[in-house]
């Protein structure tokens, strides 16, 4: 289980390495172009089963911590889907990987 640490806050988000690698690509591409946006996800039931969102901006430091040593294969269709979401008015909404059975993707667990 990897982790996305948001800025200097006490917010960290647990997420599997495969999902985190895809998010890193999409988030990095948006921030490299100077585009700020919301990132939201459905919370894991262990942290309340609601929704969470954070504002992403190139001035806010982020730390992507992977638990494994190998980079996963990248699913271009998932990158395209996440990028389209990030470019929408609602911002980047985490979704399950295309082609996976519903409910098999791990939920994100944010900790404050």
UniProtKB/TrEMBL annotation:
Keyword entries, A-Z: Ligase
Every DUF7882 domain range: 1-97
GO molecular function, one term: ligase activity
Domain of life of the organism encoding this protein: Bacteria
Location of region: Disordered: 90-112
Keyword Chaperone: no
Keyword Ligase: yes
Bias (Polar residues) ranges: 103-112
Protein name stated in the entry: ATP-dependent DNA ligase
Taxonomic lineage from the root: Bacteria, Bacillati, Actinomycetota, Actinomycetes, Micrococcales
């Amino acid at each position: 289980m990897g982790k996305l640490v948001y800025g200097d806050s006490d917010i960290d988000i647990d997420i599997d390495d495969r999902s985190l690698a895809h998010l890193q690509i999409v988030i990095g591409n948006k921030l490299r172009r100077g585009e700020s946006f919301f990132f939201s996800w459905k919370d894991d039931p262990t942290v309340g089963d609601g929704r969470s969102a954070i504002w992403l901006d190139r001035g806010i430091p982020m730390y992507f911590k992977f638990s494994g040593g190998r980079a996963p294969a990248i699913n271009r269709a998932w990158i395209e889907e996440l990028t389209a979401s990030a470019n929408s008015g609602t911002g980047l909404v985490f979704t399950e990987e295309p082609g996976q059975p519903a409910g098999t993707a791990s939920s994100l667990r944010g900790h404050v």
